[in-house]
Amino acid sequence: MDGDDDIDFGQLIGVVLDNRWLIIITAVLTLALGIIYGMLATPIYKGDALLQIEEKSGGVPGLSELNQMFEQEASAAAEIEILRSRMVLNSVIQKLKMDIIVAPDRIPFFGKITAPEPVSGVLPTPMFAGYRDSRTFVTIGRFTVPERLQGHSFTLVEEEGIPTLYSGDHKIGAAPLGRLIKSEDGTIELSITEWEYGDEPITLIKQTEIAAINQLRNFLSIQELGKTGMLSLEMTGPKKGRIKTTLDAISQTYLLQNVERRSAEAENSLDFLGKQLPEIKEKLTLAEEKLNAYRLKSESVDLTLETRSVLERVVGIEAKINELKIRESELSARFTQEHPAYRTLMQQRSSLIQEKKELNDQIKELPETQQDILRLMRDVEVTQQIYIGLLNKVQELRILKAGTVGSVRIIDEALVQPIPIKPQKALVALIAMLLGGIAAMGFVLLRAAMNKGIESPDKLEEQGISVYASVPLSQHQQKVDRLASLKKRRKKTPHNQPIPLLANVDPNDLAVEALRSLRTSLHFAMMDADNNILMVTGPSPGVGKSFVSANLGLVLAQTGQRVLVVDADMRKGHLHRYFNHDNTVGLSAYLSGQVAWEDIIHSSGTENLDFISRGKAPPNPSELLMHERFKSLMQNLSENYDLVLIDTPPILAVTDAAIVGQLAGSSLLVARFGVNSVKEVDAALTRFAQNNVDIKGAILNCMERRATNEYGYYAYEYGTQTES
User: Fold this and answer.
1) How distant, in Å, are the alpha carbons of 119, 137, 281, 382, 498 from that of 130?
2) pTM for the complete prediction?
3) pLDDT digits (tens, 9 = 90+) for 429-462
4) Which domains does the chain possess?
5) Which of 82, 134, 239, 377 fits a 20 to 30 Å CA distance from 399?
């Protein structure tokens, strides 16, 4: 981040480039996982069927009035809901026995790998309520369980050659093939149609109705193609035969219920007319008897021409009113009174009643004998006309029922695509690789954002801290440390295993060249120092103080200066390992008064370079350093050597470095690349300032060349070349 609101994209790109191998390896691994998944995943196939929803129902030619009575405009949305309804789907489930799950009892993932080979060629595989592989073959004819045990797993095994059903450890029953397996209370029944037992138990589950319906709905998709009234049924699943059979069953079941629904309307009308016919016939008989009796009594009365005209009109109106009553009964069962068809019928009926009233007024003006005979003949003719009309309608409805067709037509029967739609192996592998790469990049960027370690000398310079040297990470030293750590974990090396000095074994290493550059800087930096004592410290453990102290001492000694390296870390110091020496007699022995100062100085094996080990770890190292003997030792050593280099413990861990710093003319702070933060360095400097110790500058150790810091770190191989 360059500021509070600015993002350094160059820094982000650099972080990605520095970790490119982690990102590439992660992407390759996820690519391999994607390929493996594509090879092991169960292929999913897709099948489809096509239905047509006709706008008007089919009818019988010549019966236009009745056809119009049963016409209904089909709604595609409503038909889709009917297709997805429990009425249709549950009928399909029961017909195909889709609610009976049969599968071998295997471990979910590894069982698939170790499963027997599937059957091949001519051997049929049951699509529903059955299972077959190269060792096992079972088909279930019927499986009934009480509602409380629906969804519960049962186990079917073979005992002494007889199929046996278990619920957990409880034995339900057993029976030879061909006979019904029943529980003691008769609530569980199982019939097996075919049976070839392998060596694995068979799991049986009777699903609940709603579970089976929901499962079928999840794999079924229905949609209208535009506004064409064409419905596309699509279904996915692992078995092609099961998909085709299920789609065909849904189409046939839906078509059958559609026809039955429309035929039921005619059946309802027939039932209504069948109840009306006996009543109308009885009324007709009674009216005829009254008319005959009146004629005998009146000695046959003839109607005038005018009266007969009125009679015909009255009969016609009565017939129409009764016909409208029948239609009203049918419409009231299908529509509300606000429906346009119902309101039109009521208007027609009101008009006919008004006309009938006017005719009744005319009849009242006729002679009394003419009125009586007219009334009786009207009752006879009206009832007779109604009766004949009802008989005709009954015949027409029977013909209509026989010729009823549904408003649905199967255009395309189910067809399953031969190529699976899932998994798309190439796409899965590509997405897996991209997700792996993106996840790795996210991890790298998050780690970089969380990492507050110093990765450039500029970060220290911005805080006002002079950086005397940037010591590159030595690949040779890294290999040595890694090998020593491995041996230590395997307990194949003693605790005091020597550490080779890099300046000796590889003098042309970039880290050694950086220390030579530091040597030059120190020459000028220590000119105004109070003495020739140089303290090397650090803010925290593991920053490489001992590595810098030992190799810097050797580099300084190579210029002809007499150099003494002192290990003042009496707790965990290991400077003696760089010089292949033990630490039995060292600084702690002198400070505790056990030996003279001359006895603790050891030769390093390199000219002009001596060292003092830490000695045995004392219980009070800080108190020993504050003793007058330590000050006296520093004075003697300063007089006998050109440079005294002191390696101290980390200042943020213990106070020893603050004590030693009181006697040192110059002090350097070692910070490790990517480990120590600027805040840690600031805290260390504050701690020294509180103890009146001046730190001249810092050394950034284990510097790595990265895309994020190349602008601040330059180190190149430049060695001698032998001419041939």
Assistant:
1) 13, 8, 61, 67, 73
2) 0.57
3) 999 999 999 999 988 888 877 767 787 888 888 8
4) 9-41+423-450 (no CATH), 46-256 (no CATH), 264-409 (1.20.58), 457-712 (3.40.50.300)
5) 82
